[in-house]
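Hello,

Our lab assistant flagged a job as stuck in the queue for most of the afternoon. It eventually completed. Since we weren't sure the result was trustworthy after the delay, we are filing this so someone can double-check. Below is the sequence as submitted and the structure that was eventually returned. Let us know if re-running is recommended.
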Amino acid sequence: MMGGPADLVPLAPAVLPDGIAARFVDTGNGLRVHLLEAGAGADRPLLLLLHGFPELAYSWRKIMMPLAAAGYHVVAPDQCGYGRTTGWDGADPANFRMLRLVRDVIGLVSALGHHRAAAVIGHDFGAPVAAWCALLRPDLFPALVLMSAPFAGPPSLAANPAAAAAELDAALAALTPPRKHYQYYYSSPAAAAEMDAPAAGLAAFLRAYYHMKSADWPGNRPTRLATWAAAELARMPRYYIMDREASMPATVAAALPSPAEIAACRWLSEPELAVYAGEFARTGFRGGLQWYHCASFGIGREEMQIFAGRAITAKTLFIAGAADWGVYQAPGSFERMQETACSDFRGAHLIAGAGHWVQQEQPEAVVAILQSFLG
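-- returned structure --
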């Protein structure tokens, strides 16, 4: 699947908060990037907001206007493989390797008429992209904010992710009951087909997925994990360490909130959910899943290993929800981020009342932290 028809129009103003506009930008490397922006102007410092999976530029809608009001040109792109950005080829995982994604971001800075960004801010899988932007080009990205996904540094020269993933998969399969890691599942051929056409429908699947990873779901009580041992990882909820034969839609179906819970959800209304469902109904999930394929099987890893041992010198902040297992899902990464991976680390904030979707669940708290950090 390609990134969609070239005649796509920007996201309709009716679904966006007042002051946020949508448009397309050509980054010069084949992508026609669909983005949301507020406070437009090359004379204003640029803030780049990079979403994760399964999300969109739309995921930043609740914090864009307050940041624009503080004087910034705030830009959130649909990243390669997502939304209304076109020009990507979902059949070739090499299009989604990390340094290619960094090139996309650098091209966007230039296309917007800026010489650098005041900060790059990444959430979920957008966090490692933001981290690599700051690692490779601190002149362009002097400040970095990571959300929900700690960055432990570049891979070592001895790293063999494909072998490590296969070894972990075998160990999880030997548990009772047999389990599998969600990233290994996301890297499998079955994942896209199962997620593109869930039995309950796409909107219900996404509602259950977003709910189960939020602070609204009572099963989220994250704690540090000691090691990468299979039994230790299996302490996480099943949306991380899945039952062996289950799909992701089947895994989260049991957590589908009741109509009363949906009506009470202040951070994701039914019209907002409909934006996500409409976009993924058109694109499918394959583009986003290819990011996981690259990570699990080491596509692009050799070029990343060139930077083994190098630390991020940009000033760095970490933000996550206190109910987010993403902070601890990779044992040791939260600590390495603070101790070795970032030489100018300015603090980690775990926000009460938020799970994985921290900038949507607690936008006011996120904005206050960002404004203090950015000065």
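-- support follow-up --
The delay was a queue issue, not a problem with the job. The result is valid. The radius of gyration is 19 Å. The mean pLDDT is 96.
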